[in-house]
Design brief:
Layout (H helix, E strand, L loop, with lengths): L1 H11 L3 H16 L1 H23 L3 H24 L2 H22 L3 H18 L5 H38 L4
Length: 174
């Protein structure tokens, strides 16, 4: 029940997504993958319903399930089966690489996507005086190339950190 409540709250307040991921990891570590899937699925279903009611599309909840909870569930399952933190970290790395690979398969030119996304932010930096126009162009060019890897690293560290912290709480780490 707490995972469902945290899932709903995490849609509104992003830091709570770490807590909802930790709950899913703890359930998976202590009870197994079936109960972890049930808790994650129930939380995803409620989140999807609320996301659909709020935005007329369940995409936000789908992103949470696929990019936050599923990797944490996989990493926690690896830790439960192997009881090895190094193997758990390798699994988190494999998930991060899979996310990058899938993104590159879906988006032919990720740099241009990130350039469009960074455009409003860089405009605000110019308006506030932090950057001039020449620096702005360089900022967009450099960050557009790095953003996909940066996000994958963020997911890798989040999945690994939640899995390791949950293991320590559950007492399953070797």
């Amino acid at each position: 029940m707490s995972a469902v409540v945290l899932a709903v709250v995490s849609l509104l307040i992003f830091p709570f997504s770490v807590l909802s991921s930790a709950v899913i990891a703890l359930v998976t570590l202590r009870r197994g993958h079936v109960e972890g899937l049930v808790v994650g699925g129930l939380a995803g279903l409620v989140s999807g319903l609320l996301s659909y009611l709020a935005t007329a599309t369940p995409v936000l909840a789908l992103v949470f399930v696929l990019l936050l909870w599923l990797p944490v569930l996989v990493v926690a399952l690896v830790l439960r089966i192997t009881r090895s933190l190094p193997l758990m970290i390798y699994a988190a790395l494999a998930v991060g690489l899979a996310v990058i690979g899938f993104y590159y398969l879906q988006v032919p030119d990720p740099g241009s996507v990130w350039q469009e996304a960074l455009e409003p932010f860089s405009r605000q930096l110019v308006d506030s005086g932090f950057l001039d126009e020449a620096q702005r162009a360089l900022f967009i060019e450099q960050w557009a190339r790095r953003t996909t890897g940066l996000l994958a690293a963020l997911f890798f560290f989040a999945a690994g950190a939640v899995g390791a912290d949950s293991a320590m709480v559950a007492g399953d780490a070797v």
